[in-house]
Amino acid sequence: MAKILAVFGATGTQGGSVISNVLSDPELSQRYKLRAITRDNNSSKAQALKKRQVEVVTDDSSNPASIESALTGADFVFLMSTPSWGPNAVEDEFNTIKSIADIAVRQGLEYIIFSTLPSCSQMSQGKYTAVTAFDAKAQGEEYIKSLPIKSAFWCGAFFMENFVTQPFLGPNLNGDGTFTLARNAPATLKLPYIDAADDAGKFVNAILAEPDKYAGQTLCAAAGFYSLAEIASLLSKASGKQVTFKQVSYDEFKASIPFMGDLFAQGFAYLIDHGYFGPGGEDKVRWAVKNIRGKLTTLPEYFEKHPISL
Q1: Are 172 and 258 in contact (CB under 8 A)?
Q2: Which sequence ranges form a coiled-coil region, renumbered to this chain (predicted)?
Q3: Which end of the chain has fewer beta carbons closer than 10 Å to its terminal beta carbon, N or C?
Q4: pTM, entire model
């Protein structure tokens, strides 16, 4: 009998990728019956999932009764959390993760696959505390590992989609019509990227195919690492505009961000000191990539499929 896989964020980037990749896999689509968990089951994306014979249920993650209903009868759950941005950001997001995980255990689910991130504050020994979304997910990972339930973790790189969804981090227009990509980091700093919409589910598929093999493991997910200078060059080619990279000070970069400047400036400072995935990050990614099903989209290929307009 097929296992029921409940997917949080089913109409978003990560959850949508999990669902699409399971449906496109001849083996896994038979082994798992999909349940899409979303805040609005009347949205166009939710309706599209229903047409693909995916069960769609509504959930309010702030309401334990709603979570209980969404997970009733499920066997596996893909759990992702939405960042909080208030003064208690880490605590608020962690409490949501904890609530869902506790209910999964209480209802007797077999397995949690959690979307995690490294802890910037822990890895830097308290130097960088503003990258709250990373810290909350890292705390969630540690808590899930303590529970009497099998679990595995996918740790996603920077999303290639961010070049579209976060224009405030894109290149700035200069007076002569050229553009400058500025960061408080050297041009040689390498960043990992993944086409999350297409490829996140490929890593999750590996876990679903062999859940016992990956129990307790973290798959660090990226298609490749690209230096800031390379990224500027790729943006030039993709947009047809001249884009150059410039290293600026912490304060200058922070001031250029319209909100939560410390979060982004500390994030890049952390990357200089520790790398995105921590020590041995590129080795961690190589191991994960060897275990997935399917080809990953490189950053140049992503720009070919999704032209950038500056």
Answers
A1: no
A2: none
A3: N
A4: 0.96
